[in-house]
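Worked Example 4.2. Consider the chain below.
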Amino acid sequence: MTEHRGEMREVAGDTPLRGAPFERGVIRDVPADVTPMTGDALTDLLGAMLAVAGHLELPAVLDQFVRVSAELTCARFAAINVLDDAGTSTTFVYTGVPTAVARAMRHPPHAQGVLGQIPVDGVLRLDDLTEHPSFQGWPAHHPRMGSFLGASVKVGEHVYGQLYLSEKVEGGTFTARDERMVLALAAAAGVAVANAQLYAEAERREHWLRAGQDITTMLLEGVDEESALEHVARTAREVAGADTAALALPGMGGELFIELADGYRAAELTGLVMPRGGRAWTVLEEGRGLLTPSLSASRTVKLDEMRAFGPAMFAPLHSSGRGVGVLVLMRRIGATPFDESDLATAESFAAQAALAYVLAEARHAQDVAALLDERERIARDLHDLAIQQLFATGMQLETVRRRAARGVDPAELMSIVEDALDNVDSSVREIRQIVYALRDPDAATGVVERLRRETSLARTGLGFAPSLVLSLDGEVLTPGDGDAEDRIDERLEQELTDDVVAVVREGLANAARHAHASSVSVRVAVRGAGPTGSVAVDVEDDGAGLPATRERSSGTGNLASRARQHGGTFSLGTAPSGKGTLLTWQAPLG
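Applying the procedure from the previous section yields the following structure tokens:
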């Protein structure tokens, strides 16, 4: 939904009208004795009302309303001026004036002069608007106009805007029939505007909800905190239609800092300390959002950097009574203020982001606890297995030393020494196994199971499940064929297994980041055994293919390095089908 803040729009297919096209007139209610409209007129009116009501987006409603109003009344100039509660124009949609003249106008009109005399009910109809007592003259470059018809467009009891018509082509002046036409069309436009507003509000809420879900997913998937916070600020700014978004978070010394900012003048805001007693602290402590019509006009704003902005809203990042921070959204000076619905949706988004943030912190604490537990387990394993065995070996060697000192037969000592050497070898194996488990928790898992896990994890990044085809000596493995899987595991040494898994992982990651593909196929083929055998990995997608110019990638460089270490090969090129990319990696088994 496109918002229009203080802008002037030209109706599609017509020339634009800018400035205050109408000033000064007399109020006239609809006469009770007007001549009834003919069948053709009623048909035209009904068709026009349906045309206006047939749009859900506000710009389309306004454009259609202006166009059909001009057509029904045969007016040369027509415009609708959307006003805020202070009577300031927020959107001005028009038709009828040459583009060059329109560009000479500086700004849309406000509800002043003759325009300020348009009644809430009924119409203002004038034979010559320049004769009205409220007429204040024409702005520079403004075309001269005579006959005038103005009416309010209402949403319930609230005046949404004003319709202006001028310079009736046929007859010179507007008639009672034109009044009836305009009032009926304005009523239909009011309903259409209300529907468009509801649609826009629902769409904004959907955007906020989707943005909150994205933040939750990012944090719970393990994205680092800084990246997640940057995404929070950027998403909030885009969805709220703000120029700048900032996150104020508690820091050292109990201060509240703007940790990061996104958008207009972001660099100037980053690192600012929010003053005690200010809006940000109030929102953080009370847990309730706050709207400000203009920071630049506020006498209580203490930071000069904040005075560079107009409308602002502060939403608390609260979860279970705990204040995580404050989301600050700001627009430039003169922009449309945020309203209560904006604040409500921003508060909901901020609460969801705060909850995800707290959950991510809890998960991090669990990870730290799990790491400590793992360290304790390693210490126990080293003590109970390796260290105790080394201690026993030391006792055996001490026995050999004492007996040798007493002159015991060396042949008797040899059996003790051999037992000690066996214990040393066993201790080395225990330590190696523990260290290897630290380097790769998947060391005890076979290559087939690890490859299936990689393709399953890639579903999130790709948006679909890639296919995995495994073959042994030219025969494709069927799911559940445990014997064939064991034979593949036996033929690949641990180091080669790690490299095969790394190649598949990198290939799937590249497809997710760059390919924009609808399908990805992973093929792993093992042939023969020992030095004469080989393993080949193909990752093929049907995506955008390789760019015309490519910078060197550390990921593909690593794949080439892994291939060289085994005396194998690596290539990256266009798939045989001519569409997409094919990654090929091959290495001998020995």
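Residues 454 and 505 are 6 Å apart (CA to CA). The first strand starts at residue 7 and ends at 10. Compare this with Example 4.1 before moving on.
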